[in-house]
UniProtKB/TrEMBL annotation:
Record keywords, A-Z: Ion channel, Ion transport, Membrane, Potassium, Transmembrane, Transmembrane helix, Transport
PANTHER family cross-referenced by the UniProt entry: POTASSIUM CHANNEL, SUBFAMILY K, TWO PORE POTASSIUM CHANNEL PROTEIN SUP-9
Organism name: Dicentrarchus labrax (European seabass)
Family annotation (InterPro entries): 2pore_dom_K_chnl (IPR003280), K_chnl_dom (IPR013099)
Pfam family name, one: Ion_trans_2
Protein name, UniProt field: Potassium channel, subfamily K, member 7
Compartments, as annotated in UniProt: Membrane
Domain (Potassium channel): residue spans on this chain: 90-147, 191-220
GO biological process terms, semicolon-separated: stabilization of membrane potential
Length: 268
């Protein structure tokens, strides 16, 4: 009986954990629905009013033709193809767009705008990512392992040796300072840079973009450099390199440092 009790407790704990996670997912869906649904209704009503006004002011335009035109335009816009001639030069699919797509794909951030459209490009993307993503992760893991002693163990050792702190307190101080540093480098400073690069974005938009990029959930429909000219290749490369650095090196170091802290503090 004594041997079955721990198994029974583990099974019940796992069941409760799964149930709590499902409730957490449902709660998230309910919250987003409650917050976003009114905004969607307002935007839908605004678009419907514009469509009705346009048809009234232009009786020669048929509603079916307008619907077909808008459908084609929205489909092209989702593929990041310029519909207006004024935007054709700025939003054409050139080498800069392709390079940006390769970088965000290899780093598993994903792209909501620059996507392959032809069958050949899609097949090439599949095989390219099968080779490129593991190679990228392997390279960044090696880089993180090289930086790990410098970022985590060395500062804690310095605090213990030269400041006379106990190991637990040194780990706590180091984790706090590292968290503040990483928060500034991964969120606040990049958000300011994104605001400077994208004047149409608010600080909250830039902060949200940095968060979803770091959490690898995509780009939320926003993409850096959509309206940059093809001559700004160096700018795109610089921003992409920053995203890669912020995403893997610093975030892995932060998680490792926090894990080390919790591991040392749990026995206390």
């Amino acid at each position: 009986v004594g041997g079955k009790r721990p198994v029974f407790i583990r099974v019940n704990a796992l069941s409760c954990l799964v149930l709590c996670y499902l409730l957490f997912v449902v709660l998230g869906g309910v919250a987003f629905t409650a917050v976003e649904k009114p905004v969607e209704r307002e935007l839908r009503a605004e678009v419907e009013e514009l469509r009705r006004s346009f048809l009234q002011e232009n009786p020669c335009v048929q509603e079916s033709g307008l619907r077909e035109l808008l459908g084609k335009a929205l489909s092209a816009h989702r593929s990041d193809v310029a519909v207006l001639k004024a935007d054709a030069e700025e939003r054409s699919y050139d080498f800069t767009s392709s390079l940006y797509f390769v970088i965000v794909t290899l780093t598993t951030m994903g792209s909501d705008s620059y996507t392959p459209k032809s069958y050949e490009a899609k097949l090439f993307c599949i095989f390219y990512c099968i080779l490129g993503i593991p190679l990228t992760l392997f390279l960044l893991t090696l880089l993180s392992n090289i930086l790990l002693p410098v970022v985590t163990h060395a500062p804690v050792h310095h605090l213990c040796t030269y400041w006379g702190m106990p190991y637990a307190r040194a780990a706590l101080v180091h984790a706090g300072l590292l968290s503040a540093l990483v928060l500034s480098l991964l969120f606040l400073l990049p958000a300011l840079l994104v605001c400077a690069a994208e004047p149409d974005w608010s600080f909250l938009d830039a902060l949200f973009f940095c968060f979803i990029v770091l959490s690898t959930v995509g780009q939320g429909g926003d993409s850096l450099g959509r309206t940059w000219a093809p001559r700004n290749l160096n700018r795109v490369i610089l921003e992409s390199e920053k995203l890669v650095q912020y995403k893997y090196v610093l975030s892995l170091d932060l998680l490792t440092a926090l894990g080390l802290l919790f591991q040392k503090l749990c026995p206390l």
